[in-house]
């Protein structure tokens, strides 16, 4: 059990933690963590100020930066539009895509197409196709509870292959072996002497929080949208993510 369970992470406490570790690995979820949640999935773009802060962070001494998102890597790169420094490591599809698109797996693609066909007549949803997963967005659906019930029935049919991952008005069919925790484990193996800090905001990030807690890093939940919490610390909103980053940058400048 994490002894800091559900503590509010204020600036004083954050600085106390930073002072114990000379090298920091920052890991960020994307939506709801470093960019605000928006209605249009393809309009979740970093502001100029946010981009500048992340780029400055990536250039700070003894600092590594990564983004681990459920979005497909191509979609993330479309939103970033080459504005982030190339040193920032990008992981898409919950870590299944690292740096470049994964090879399609026919054993996964075929059942995903079957699931898509089962739902193709459903109105007011849209599909986000990824190399090895399928996300159903249902923010405009008129009866969300009924839709979720039916999605869960579909999930039961394919339960040997996929686990279901629910986020903010999304329902994702994802191969059982893929989650953000595996991506964070990969980053930790590459940067063993860096203290890992993971910022996330929803259920999909709990896999990452669990791994961070196991390796004695800092797990930070942004906002209070989820009740099943694994993060050791809590901050209020996306704006607070950047406040903590700026605090770290000011600390670096003083050294």
Q: What number is the mean pLDDT?
A: 91
Judged by helices, strands and strand pairing, the structural class is alpha/beta
- Count of discrete structural domains: 2
Strand content: 15-25%
Shape: elongated
In CATH, the topology of the largest domain is named Rossmann fold
Tell me the span between the first and last alpha carbons.
34 Å
CATH class (first level) name of the largest domain? Alpha Beta
Instruction: Summarize the biggest pleated sheet.
Output: 8 strands, mixed
Number of strands: 12
State the strand order across the main sheet. 1-12-11-10-2-3-4-5
Question: Could you tell me the radius of gyration in angstroms?
Answer: 18 Å
CATH superfamily label of the largest domain: HAD superfamily/HAD-like
Oligomer: single chain
CATH architecture of the largest domain: 3-Layer(aba) Sandwich
Helical fraction: 25-40%
Query: So how many helices?
Result: 8
Describe the structure.
The chain is α/β, with parallel strands linked by helices and 255 residues long. It is 36% helix and 21% strand. It is built from eight helices and twelve strands. An eight-stranded mixed beta sheet has the order 1-12-11-10-2-3-4-5, sandwiched between helices. A four-stranded antiparallel beta sheet has the order 6-7-9-8. Helix 6 runs parallel beside helix 7.
